[in-house]
What we know:
Chain A contains 14 helices and ten strands. Chain A has helices spanning 4-10, 18-28, 46-49, 52-56, 65-75, 84-91, 124-129, 146-162, 186-198, 216-224, 232-242, 260-272, 282-285, 289-304, and strands spanning 39-43, 79-82, 100-103, 105-106, 119-120, 134-139, 167-171, 203-206, 249-253, 277-279. The A-B interface holds A 1-2, 6, 10, 17-26, 28-29, 73, 91-92, 94-97, 125, 128-132, 162-164 and B 1-2, 6, 10, 17-26, 28-29, 73, 88, 91-92, 94-97, 125, 128-132, 162-164.
Amino acid sequence: MATARVREILSWYTSENPGVKANLARIMNTGRLAGTGKFVILPVDQGFEHGPARSFAPNPAGYDPRYHVELAIEAGCNAYAAPLGFIEHVASDYAGDIPLILKLNNSDGLSKGHEPCSAITGSVEDALRLGCAAIGYTIYPGSGARNEQYEALRELILEAKAVGLPSVVWSYPRGIGLTKEGETAIDVSGYAAQIAAQLGAHIIKVKPPKMHLEQAEAKKVFEKHAIPIGTLTERVKEVVRSAFNGRRIVIFSGGEAKGTDEVLAEVAEIAAGGAFGSIMGRNAFQRPRAEAIELLHAVMDLHKNAR
Amino acid sequence: MATARVREILSWYTSENPGVKANLARIMNTGRLAGTGKFVILPVDQGFEHGPARSFAPNPAGYDPRYHVELAIEAGCNAYAAPLGFIEHVASDYAGDIPLILKLNNSDGLSKGHEPCSAITGSVEDALRLGCAAIGYTIYPGSGARNEQYEALRELILEAKAVGLPSVVWSYPRGIGLTKEGETAIDVSGYAAQIAAQLGAHIIKVKPPKMHLEQAEAKKVFEKHAIPIGTLTERVKEVVRSAFNGRRIVIFSGGEAKGTDEVLAEVAEIAAGGAFGSIMGRNAFQRPRAEAIELLHAVMDLHKNAR
Amino acid sequence: MATARVREILSWYTSENPGVKANLARIMNTGRLAGTGKFVILPVDQGFEHGPARSFAPNPAGYDPRYHVELAIEAGCNAYAAPLGFIEHVASDYAGDIPLILKLNNSDGLSKGHEPCSAITGSVEDALRLGCAAIGYTIYPGSGARNEQYEALRELILEAKAVGLPSVVWSYPRGIGLTKEGETAIDVSGYAAQIAAQLGAHIIKVKPPKMHLEQAEAKKVFEKHAIPIGTLTERVKEVVRSAFNGRRIVIFSGGEAKGTDEVLAEVAEIAAGGAFGSIMGRNAFQRPRAEAIELLHAVMDLHKNAR
Amino acid sequence: MATARVREILSWYTSENPGVKANLARIMNTGRLAGTGKFVILPVDQGFEHGPARSFAPNPAGYDPRYHVELAIEAGCNAYAAPLGFIEHVASDYAGDIPLILKLNNSDGLSKGHEPCSAITGSVEDALRLGCAAIGYTIYPGSGARNEQYEALRELILEAKAVGLPSVVWSYPRGIGLTKEGETAIDVSGYAAQIAAQLGAHIIKVKPPKMHLEQAEAKKVFEKHAIPIGTLTERVKEVVRSAFNGRRIVIFSGGEAKGTDEVLAEVAEIAAGGAFGSIMGRNAFQRPRAEAIELLHAVMDLHKNAR
Amino acid sequence: MATARVREILSWYTSENPGVKANLARIMNTGRLAGTGKFVILPVDQGFEHGPARSFAPNPAGYDPRYHVELAIEAGCNAYAAPLGFIEHVASDYAGDIPLILKLNNSDGLSKGHEPCSAITGSVEDALRLGCAAIGYTIYPGSGARNEQYEALRELILEAKAVGLPSVVWSYPRGIGLTKEGETAIDVSGYAAQIAAQLGAHIIKVKPPKMHLEQAEAKKVFEKHAIPIGTLTERVKEVVRSAFNGRRIVIFSGGEAKGTDEVLAEVAEIAAGGAFGSIMGRNAFQRPRAEAIELLHAVMDLHKNAR
């Protein structure tokens, strides 16, 4: 039976059919954080997004698609997320071992000069036949092509939930509407979380927000109402609040690979801010396996003990 | 990670997509028998098949749909099977708590004189939106309407597997082609298991076979080859062999309600015959809750220790 | 490159698209008879048609679906034909090892008193996803339900050929229109072959015809024109002539299990009559493996040396 | 029966249905490299891509579509790949003689100034009616139109695999995102292989990579981890590793026509790097027939003896 | 019965169904060139393409749609080709009198400045209901919009052949990729014929090629291999060779209206080059009727006597 916390989180999704809830529950009832309502997810789409050498050369075991799903299982993650090719390669041999999230769009780094926009590289039909527990999708708020992305996402969410699949949305501000600094500005991060929630995302992934305020109108409001954004913990609180006052699951990415202490210090702040968890790719799979598992366990413990 | 036995069983279904395998794995990885490759499933379709009074008056708690799914969860069953109404009533509140099997056809006892034939009372779409792990379907080999049943089943199985759902087939010989005794004759039982397997069933449910031999041609063969059918254990072996030499999951129903000793003696023989498990309805839900759980645990133990 | 004889046979099917021809060629280019234009096919649908005990008890290895496809491969058959369940069980593990023929309809022996009619137990979609080289289908000329069967077959043939799959038709006279003796009468056998050919069958399977003449009008013609039917060889010639004067592939079933000498004597007569080959089930799989292979090789040699 | 190596390669595609596996097996079980898990494929799309004179004037026999398929058959290639017109012209007369790969998109050289993008010139339906064993498709990573190409490919792969057809993807970096040198840079080549694999390609065709490193971020990684790229063999290893650590079939094109010694020296290095084979067009069909067959045999020998 | 030459030509289309072959045969068995394998077709799409005054004022009888079909019948043409309106106007009254080719796309001359691209102005359904023997379609290789045209054509060809209709493709190089001179350059003309053939055209219409060589890479090849292009006859040979070495029907348009001697001199050279015939519009219908018929007869004689 689900824990009280899992029931509470599911109660925020009462408009959804039992299939969507069951898959959300499956993700929450899996791994070392089972039943806590906290999440640590392993995502590995960097092979597509950054290329194989940049992604896997630091720990060459990762060239093999099996490595990642085994790492996620062994570390006790709630789910493993990847593009079609990686999921297809492991879905049969590891059937039922861990909830899979099929990333339905991806962007490679070989073409330049256009507004950020991913290609659709998978379908809800793929997710079903591969036994996935959710679909994943990236939007780029701030991109000149954002509306096409929102529209495609809305259709996919609707299609997915009809067959019982929840949606995980990577909300990454980027593009013509934003400065480089603005991509992780606290006002923009909260806004990105809100947009994903308004589009119907069940789980929202954002980057840890920085102290910068990008939009003049937003800046005025943050200052007028003295919204605290001085620490990462405060900023995470603000982002979580921006996603329906904490009634949507918001998880934070780990970003570029860095030292263990640095990662854990950041996660500690994120966890203290009420985050629902971490989605940690490069900092996990670019480390040697044992070290990665140790790190993931430490991250899980920080989230588990956060409240 | 799945156990070696679960992996072995999944290896018999190599033509299936990962979604079908993942749901089979989910069922095998749930409950007190998780990982053993054995099954105890709670089915409650008697409200539709026999009427509520006959079904629930012996233990009135069972009038409430929640009672059964809670019983299945608490007893540690692998799955809970029921018609649409019962599943719809509990799918949301117990989302993710236990694999659900949606019985897609049902036959009531209010009309007589026709060849046995169930109505289709649910769909693959229902199974997905309700978060089910499999569909269920009853065929009546021996019925004058059997062909229509086989044809409808084939289409449902194809539709279900495309979206990752395995199929559980109740194969109950009955109808114009058979005597009453023939319905559970050993030759007929093995034949019924074979038909379900040939139609593409992933899990096959049959009744415990009796010593009677129904068909003259089959009788000759049983006698010529001296196939042992003197004990229930021997007959179960023959039925399991009839379903692709044990390479399809065959489980046995408990039949009419009876005393605990009688049930356990029968299950002991069934388990010794290489059955993959039991699907036990009336003998479970018509007992008081504590007693039912005790019985189900005893049944599970018999299967777990059988080999 | 195909042999001259294979090219000649394919030239009878010029209205077909290249996909249909390629699959016919695949079947003709496989096994010990590759390139000869002769066929020996192993069909195993008796589990469904007669029940598992009658089919497999004589050689219990045959309860296992893998046994049959391995037998067909090892013996060097042109193809292996079976219902959905048997094909699904082996299609992945033996992918590409031998052309598979998916029997799309089947009839069990558990219901009585109706006109002979099989249930549709598979689809063209199944044949494609399972990598089959052809579909198979049984018609019962003489049955009161024959028209429904012809109509369903026509639709399946059209659907199958659009995706490059040829059709193998079991044409078995049976039913209200015929006496028991008439089922294998020479006039009826030739008629049954003609019907299958007219319905668009690419390969036609009939039973060895007997000397009986069933229909009064036909009897007159056979007698008036002194059509020789005294020997099996003569009768096979008449059946082959009845299928577009030998410009359709007609193969003959072996019928009930019998002694090796008897089988070979019959096949020798069939081969001498210009048959394109044999489709031999029970006489193959009910023998011990080594003996079955020896028999199948002898049958192949008879066909190979026939012309 | 398939060899152990063919079985091993098929085991990397466990999520696929038996139809896809059977066609992959057919390609691997054809020609002089049958059973080795190595591939030499003859592709002739240059008539469309470069025009007939540039393609066929060096060996005018090649103006006739029959020439190429006969060359592929006689040389013992695993498969022959071409656009619709060429395949349609030969599919019937050479039905069953060699696995055919229908190139579903093609780009002519008569229009300039746009981002590289091919037209869709065939369909999965065409591939089926023509009896093909696979579809082929070209993507141009680096092109401003890449996302449309990825999306169209994804739909075609899904459609094709539903009917049992695997997909061969030509991954040719080109377009606004890349310098001319970058099109064959080692970092870009590996990235191109990864993208094709993530999109679900079953067989990936890339060009032999050069020593150039195109992307600054990738350059850092190659240098930091001292990935050896000094020889073609080392670079091929890196590309093969980039396609799921060698668990996807990667074959290398021969590129522009050149002298025999030069071709063989290059193939020797490619084979030593663990390539699964060569796809060799111009260097084959632009030579006189006897010379082409001799060359293809030498290429096959290099691959066969490589490991 | 078809002549040996007609049978030979049909043998190049063996992948097609009998319906497509029958309509090709109908066209080849019609008119004064019946049985010769040569074609003279009257096309009248200039009303749409150039406007009525430019098209019909020189011979005002041509304003009446009946004029053209009667001209084609009386002159003994193989077929008459026109857009929907013209065909609809005459299809009933002249039903069965001459094979009709429905031009499925057309471009008017009222809009400028975009890349050449025709509108789809008819459908396969129209062609069937109007009793046509083929569809017609124009592509503009070299146009920036060429890919859309190729893709639409491919779908129409597939749709048309499914209902037994062959396709006639006007392949007219034009657009951003080409100079004005390049539109009829010999290298480009051969390339245009190849593209149409690869797209599946059954009959290809091109303009008489000129001596210019447009593409630098092609120029090198023409010079290196000393391909003779000095006379129109030589250039026609090269174009015919470019369409599958003469195994696709290639016919040449007459182009702008000109004097009779000039027309016949050009046709004589075209016929000597192995062209399959002429498609002659303005030079026919802009002349007085009797004169037009005389000219068409002369053109037919030149083609008939060419080989």
